[in-house]
UniProtKB/TrEMBL annotation:
<dbReference type="Pfam" id="PF07883">
    <property type="entry name" value="Cupin_2"/>
</dbReference>
<dbReference type="InterPro" id="IPR013096">
    <property type="entry name" value="Cupin_2"/>
</dbReference>
<keyword id="KW-0479">Metal-binding</keyword>
<dbReference type="InterPro" id="IPR011051">
    <property type="entry name" value="RmlC_Cupin_sf"/>
</dbReference>
<protein>
    <submittedName>
        <fullName>Cupin domain protein</fullName>
    </submittedName>
</protein>
<feature type="domain" description="Cupin type-2">
    <location>
        <begin position="43"/>
        <end position="111"/>
    </location>
</feature>
<dbReference type="InterPro" id="IPR051610">
    <property type="entry name" value="GPI/OXD"/>
</dbReference>
<dbReference type="GO" id="GO:0046872">
    <property type="term" value="F:metal ion binding"/>
</dbReference>
<dbReference type="InterPro" id="IPR014710">
    <property type="entry name" value="RmlC-like_jellyroll"/>
</dbReference>
Length: 118
């Protein structure tokens, strides 16, 4: 097997359905079908006013902010986010992500395969 190199902007971007988010696109970087058996690395792009809706799930996820200004909101707190910030969301915590700026808010999110259902 050779090394895999790519540009995230060249990956197919699918619109996240309206049951889960507003003005949000998702790209799959790695997954069990593509070089990572145990996790899925996704890149989410939230346009101006974009957000994921409040949700919780049975798995944790790891987030790294790539660009823009946004926030992660829980039932008890709001954390402002910008490039190079990171977030660990534990299993069972109700949360959502919001674009708080005029530019796209983009972040990498890693979950186990069962976490990539939308």
């Amino acid at each position: 097997m050779d090394i895999v190199v790519g540009d995230r902007k060249e990956l197919e971007a699918g619109q996240v359905d309206e049951d889960h988010a507003l003005n949000t696109k998702k790209r799959i970087v790695f997954s069990p079908e593509d070089h990572w058996d145990s996790h899925v690395m996704r890149v989410f792009t939230l346009g101006e006013g974009g957000q994921t809706f409040q949700h919780s799930h049975d798995w944790p996820h790891w987030v790294y902010i790539l660009a823009g200004e946004g926030a992660v909101v829980t039932e008890s707190d709001t954390h402002e986010l910008s490039r190079d910030d990171y977030v660990f969301v534990p299993a069972g915590l109700t949360h959502n992500f919001e674009n708080r700026g005029k530019e796209e808010f983009e972040f990498m999110c890693i979950v186990p395969p069962e976490g990539d259902s939308f």
